[in-house]
Amino acid sequence: MITFEHVSKYFGKNSQRIAALSDVEFSVESGKVFGVIGPSGAGKSTLIRCANLLERPDEGRVIVDGMNLIELTPSDLAQARKKIGMIFQQFNLLSSRTVYENIALPLELDGKDKSSIKQKVLPLLELTGLKSKQDAYPAQLSGGQRQRVGIARALANQPKVLLSDEATSALDPENTHAILRLLKDINEQLGVTILIITHEMEVVKEICHHLAIMEHGKIIEHADVVDFFGNPKTELAQRFIQKVAKDHLPIAVKQRLHSEATPNSNPLWHLSFLGKTSQEPLIAHLMQQLSITLNILQADIELIRDQTMGTMITEVVGSTEQIQAGLKYLQNKGVHVEVIGYVRNPE
Ligand SMILES: Nc1ncnc2c1ncn2[C@@H]1O[C@H](COP(=O)(O)OP(=O)(O)OP(=O)(O)O)[C@@H](O)[C@H]1O
Ligand SMILES: [Mg+2]
Question: Which domains does the chain have, with CATH numbers?
Fold first, then answer.
């Protein structure tokens, strides 16, 4: 549905010139949710803005629904853009218009008459749960409700593609969750293909099928979301996952966590078990056969998209040789192990 072929985009001139996108290639299959993560300045917003030519690439092709947008005449491009909805972090609503009027705006601009506008807006109010708010103004709404208006407006022209740039990052966790559920429904019920930029791993885990990670204008890794979490390849992907794991550590452990090993410290492992790998025998083997002591701090079964993944964070006590043997054993069993730091023992 969306294909980027050798897309590059530069900003600035001469020595100031930077490549915001550098030879980016990826495809989003029809009906899927594709997430893009990466550090600030990586080029994520530039990438999504190239997907509807809000930003025109300097090189390459952007193909949406079979058409190379770059070659279209202005009027054909305007036509193609109607099938690409976009939502923003700051919602971008018109403050002088009601909820109903904001959602109706793209249809008015398209010259639709009042009754056909109403026919389209009413089901969108229903879908986004805004029926009782249709006459309210944006200032009278919560952040979550404003984003619902943004989403309804983006769907007014019945797009095939929805682009979302940090659409939940101005929201609290509860509203984030509700908006994600709405996006998931839109994907599953309306079949809309979604390209979503985020820095929140929760977003990725909940709704993305596929994930790409960007750094310095390049996509450095992309994978099915379950593989990404179960077997991240690049250091950056591993860091992202570690950060999530660290954020969830108990405070007492965080305070004892260091990035360097000392003679007085034990490694902290983050284990992920994909699919059917059962945790119990593996842990028993480490403790009984390899005489490693595991101080399990956290164990969890997570749903990533709709697959289960077990995760565990454990302090590992043993000699260097024992720990090496344990690592090797787990890796042979297909368990992904990250060392997220070292916890020092109290003096
Ligand atoms: N209009 C512009 N003019 C000049 N430089 C720009 C412009 N837009 C983006 N850049 C530069 O391009 C690079 C990529 O920016 P972009 O906004 O795509 O990053 P991002 O990954 O979305 O970051 P963030 O996570 O902070 O939103 C940055 O170095 C940025 O300064
Ligand atoms: Mg951005």
Answer: 2-230 (3.40.50.300), 248-344 (3.30.70.260)
* pLDDT number for residue 128: 94
Tokens 């916890």 correspond to what residue? 343
CB 269 within 8 A of CB 340: yes
Distant-in-sequence, close-in-space partners of 263: CB < 8 Å, separation ≥ 6: none
CA 123, CA 113: separation in Å to the nearest integer?
Answer: 17
Structure tokens at 310: 């077990």
For the chain, residues with pLDDT lower than 50 are: none
Ligand 2 center to 39 CA (angstroms): 9
Give the whole-angstrom CA distance, residue 135 versus residue 144. 17
Return the axis-axis angle of helices 143-155 and 99-109, rounded to nearest 10°: 20
| Best of 10, 17, 44 for a ligand 1 pocket test (most atoms within 8 Å of beta carbon) | 44
